[in-house]
Amino acid sequence: MEHPGSDRAAQVGMELKKRGWRLAVAESCTGGLLGHRLTRIPGSSAYFLGGVIAYRNEIKARILNVREETLAQFGAISAEAAREMAEGVRHLFQADLALAITGVAGPDPEEGKPVGEIYIALASPDGTWTRRITGGLDREENQALAVEAALELLEGMLRGSFPPKGSRGNEGS
What is the DSSP string of 110-130? Predict the structure, then answer.
């Protein structure tokens, strides 16, 4: 059974392979779904290094180097945390690019954030971009939406349509 959007994962993979770039991921609310989507593609080991499922804040801090100050001031469900997750996993894996996803998949709100509030970040040598998306009340739909939005963000960067619509960037990583 094909995943909706698996063509996007394959297209992104082909472009990464063509450029010789390597990708790493950091996931929270998607629990490994992004890594799964990427590794369903035959030959993905040519460009996919691996990922970290950082479900708890202490893992985000200890493994991905998300600053305690960031977690205290903005929370784990924030553009700032997503940015630091992406930059942390990029550094950890020595990857060319990194994607990170954090948010509230549901069914209950967290950290005062509503179900469906999700942040995605893409870290590259040229900077880090974040995007906020809003899903609905269904956990699985929110997870699928987050993964698709992360792949879309990466696809936009690879196609040169940067900065991506609805994203915020910074200088350097």
Answer: BTTBPTTEEEEEEEETTEEEE
What percentage of the chain's residues is helix, strand, coil (to nearest 5)?
40, 25, 35
Maximum Cα–Cα distance across the chain: 43
pTM, to two decimals: 0.92
Cβ atoms within 10 A of the Cβ of 146, count? 26
Q: What are the DSSP calls for 61-77, one per residue?
A: HHHH---HHHHHHT-SS
Length of the chain: 173
Q: Per residue of the chain (173 residues), what is the pLDDT tens digit?
A: 444 445 899 999 999 999 999 999 999 999 999 999 999 999 999 999 999 999 999 999 999 999 999 999 999 999 999 999 999 999 999 999 999 999 999 999 999 999 999 999 999 999 999 999 999 999 999 999 999 999 999 999 999 876 655 556 653 33
